[in-house]
Amino acid sequence: MTPASEIALESQHATATGIFTGALKSCDIASAFDRRLQFDGRFLYRLLPDGSGPATIDLSTFKRVFVIALGKAAAPMLGTLLSRMKRRQGLSGICASNQLPANRNWRFRYFESGHPLPNEDSFAAARAALALLRKARKDTIVFFLISGGGSALFELPLDPHVTLEDTIAFNQLLLASGAPINEVNTLRKHFSAVKGGRLAMAAPDATKVILLLPDVPLRTLDALSSGPTSPDHSTVADVRELLAKYDLAEKLPPSIRAFFEREDFPESPGNKTWRVTFLPHKMPWPDAARPRSMTSARNMSGEDEAFQNSVYEILLSSHDLVESARTLARNAGYHVIVDNGCDDWDYADAARYLLERFHNHRARHARLCLISVGEVTVTLNRTPGAGGRNQQFALTCALDLARFPGAHLTVLSAGSDGIDGNTPAAGAIADPTTVARARAFGFDPEESLAEFNACTLFTAIGDSVVTGPTGHNLRDLRLLISENDELL
Predict the structure, then answer these.
(1) φ, ψ at 45 (rounded to 5°)
(2) pLDDT band at 226 (very low <50, low <70, confident <90, very high)
(3) Could you tell me the CA-to-CA distances from 326 to 43, 284, 319, 361, 431 in Å, in that order?
(4) β-strands 91-97, 108-112: how paired?
(5) Overall fold of domain 3-24+321-487
């Protein structure tokens, strides 16, 4: 490769990294909060996106205010809420996240929970939240601040005889199964005492304001942190079908297998009786009915009163992330294509699909940026090395890009939470030189891919994307960038 080509690839690496980090910076939690909610003395105004004006909650009518914050963005969400809400009388709550904030409010209990697998604090946080919510009455308003990662960070088995060790083994099995997140979370909901709507059930009489930062497709919002406050529409029959589909029953710890095989195995709260209604919000892409805010939950049969008096708000989502990336790429002079069609696909299938589109379009555009948001799946058939789904995706792309020596092509895949799998990296960058450089360092890229050990390779050649924990969790972002000198 000529020095000019090396400089061009270095520039593309910097551009891709800049788009990724810039998109994250644009998705500011505090700004999003202020676009959706406004505190004015005793009142909370919900700024509805359909032009119908604000909905008002009179906070002075409540004697107590509880806040349950859980997920990877729990700390910044809680900090923002407390900075806007001046009331302190009757205020208390819990915060469960993978990182403790530097500044903590003495009215709250903070738990440094485990991710991607639960730990003792995950159990302790769930117990503390349930104990607090059981004190709620009609004169209580509860703010639930829910972001991605809560499935591990906030957990307690429905069967009290199931141990933490068995719960960890159960989650390891689910993460290695290759099942998409909505199916994984169907199993988690029915296993847990705080998922699938059961957290809301602990405070049936309270008014609930549920603020969401989803890391799941917006069509499946009840999968966010396994839906602790959402009515669950999956069934016991679905659970047993999934256990058979992924051949999980024989691999489960005995205590959990016995739980799932109980004849009186319970349905989740709200099953088939509740629906949550979205308000459409027009956006400049084909799926114009983008879910941006939710009205109060509506009881279809008069059952499960725990879900009454609940309002939902989506503060930010992956749509905001991709729109920010689109703007940054256009400002950098690229023709932009957005394709989220491979969401929840196997990483190798997603790579083939996006690379095919990328190669077809780059032949017609001098400067192209293909953007894709969402998550891919990985099925583990062995004990993994150091890596995650984004680095698996990037290394798969590197093997394809090696077919185009001298071309100015770059692929970035990274998680918006700053963490990929069991590594400190958010993801990685690949280009046509990745495979050759890796081999020069003594790596076999195909072997690293098969052993789920991509992080070691990318770290050695200097192409890991490292941000540290971002306080976000808006799914993964993939950028495929090309510059064609012949078309310039």
Answers:
(1) -105, 130
(2) very high
(3) 36, 11, 10, 16, 21
(4) parallel
(5) glycerate kinase, domain 1 (3.40.1480)
